[in-house]
Here is the input.
Amino acid sequence: MNLKAKVIILFLSLILISSSAKSQYKSLELNDTTQFTKSTLPKPKLHLKPEAKFDDMFGQFVGGNLAGGLVGLGGAFLGYAIDRGISKYHGEWAGAGGALIGLVAGHCAGSIIGVYGIVTSKDVKGDIGATILGGILGTGASIGTLYHCA
Here is the structure.
């Protein structure tokens, strides 16, 4: 190839590359909406819930145990009444099994309600599924500990 042909190819390449780059820039300029959103629209605000802090966890612990105890006592009375009503045995310990089952079920449900109530009132990030699982596992662990100690 002679020098004249190389110069022509180089010149045409530069023209094609520059026109291609200019058209790509124009298409990006048309598709870029950041200038439009920055100048005319307010910035969108993210509503992220804050991470849990120690005082939030302490509040969940207290609220869960308080609600668990109260609902557990109510469940114990309800279980006692149901067991006394349907049981044929009316001895000294009649209704004790129902009271125990009512206490356990009530404490489990109450602790879940108490913890979730504290979480939602403080607008802390949390998951209801994890709260329910934690309430069930915590109640099961406390039953296991009491059974092992007795």
